[in-house]
Amino acid sequence: MRRKLLTIVGARPQFIKAGVITRLIREKFTGGLEEVMVHTGQHYDENMSRIFFDQLKLPKPKINLGIGSGTHGEQTGKMLPLIEREILAEQPDMVVVYGDTNSTLAGALAAAKLQIPVAHVEAGLRSWNRAMPEEVNRVATDHISSLLLCPSDVATANLKREGIVKGVVKTGDVMHDSALYCAQRAEENRAAFDRLCREFEIEPGAYYLATVHRAENTDHPENLKQIVSAFARLPKVVWPVHPRTTKALRENRIDCGKNIILASPLSYLDMLLFLQHAKMVLTDSGGVQKEAMFFKVPCVTLREETEWTETVDAGWNIVAGAEATRILNAVAAHPGLAKKDISQTYGTGRAGVKVIETILSFLNDT
Predict the structure, then answer these.
(1) Count of other CB atoms within 10 angstroms of residue 198
(2) Partner of 297 at 20 to 30 A CA spacing, among 101, 118, 165, 314?
(3) What one-character-per-residue DSSP string does 2-56 give?
(4) Tell me: the pLDDT tens digits for 309-327?
(5) DSSP assignment of 301-357, as one string?
(6) CB–CB of 302/327 below 8 Å?
């Protein structure tokens, strides 16, 4: 019996994660599963949306809700009735959500209220900071999901601590699968990277790569000023700037100086190449922390905590917050850290297969 999945995505990291599952369904599991993808439109910039589907060789989502930007409540509120409408129209056997965005929470809530089982890919992550909207999203989603597909042992332990044991399965991290798949494709399309290196006047291995987009940094001018102050004291920083961050820099009249190269958002393949060839990564993104570790590039996290604690335990990541001195001290400390083996931390590149097999087993047993 062929089962139908309704997949909810809306932001860059979700396109990457969902891409692994979509590709496997089309190539290996098409006899058992049909997938309908709904794009909420939470990320609508071309370099943060459409280009990801092109580069990952994915079919365009069947449905684009076109939500756009807004406050957290506004975005989530707009999404709920539209996702509910699509669930009622498609009658899926399961709704699949990824990560911790407003799209994740809206998809899970809409499905749960219609008594459609929810599979949460990347369940069990915790930063233990409820001031982060992402933390609220992931906690709430975990508590209404039927299947909790965890990337690591730490994630499963977090759920057990909250009394969630039913439906919990450690699958490994689909982001690891994607990084392995896309790294080779990125190398095969290296011309754009080489051109940008010439344009930026940088050499591979001799620059820092930065990303800053979380509200705790962009919405707090002092944090953003401190981060920029730290970047300005490093030799060469390539900074693909998120639209939210561009607006914050402009509104707060923050001058980035000559050492910081402000770039437009990079495509996924270009970003992977810039990350692989960076001297170090400075980021407040959860996904970029992991990608840095996958490719053995030291990372400094511009937050007070991380949900990806394995990256810190393995010595590839230092959590430094948003104060300039702490950031620079973390940069200086990295060469002296003992980096641990990471080969089994997030699986062996078969997390996607495990996710699909777990979903099929659940649906066949219900």
Answers:
(1) 9
(2) 101
(3) -EEEEEEE-SHHHHHHHHHHHHHHHHT-TTTEEEEEEE--SS-SGGGTHHHHHHT
(4) 999 999 999 999 999 999 9
(5) ESSS--S-HHHHHTTSEEE-TT-HHHHHHHHHHGGGS-PPP-TTTT-SS-HHHHHHH
(6) yes
Provide CATH 3.40.50.2000 ranges for the chain.
3-173+347-364, 189-336
Residue 95 three-state SS:
strand
Architecture of domain 3-173+347-364 in CATH? 3-Layer(aba) Sandwich (3.40)
23-32 contacts, C-beta under 8 A, 24 or more apart: 23/56, 23/57, 23/58, 23/181, 23/352, 24/352, 24/353, 24/356, 25/356, 26/59, 28/353, 29/356, 29/360, 31/2, 32/2, 32/3, 32/360
For the full predicted model, state whether its pTM sits above 0.85.
yes
Measure the CA–CA gap between 20 and 175, rounded to whole angstroms.
Answer: 8
Catalytic choice (39, 43, 176, 213): 213
CATH class for the region spanning 189-336? alpha beta
pLDDT at 155: 97
DSSP 65: -
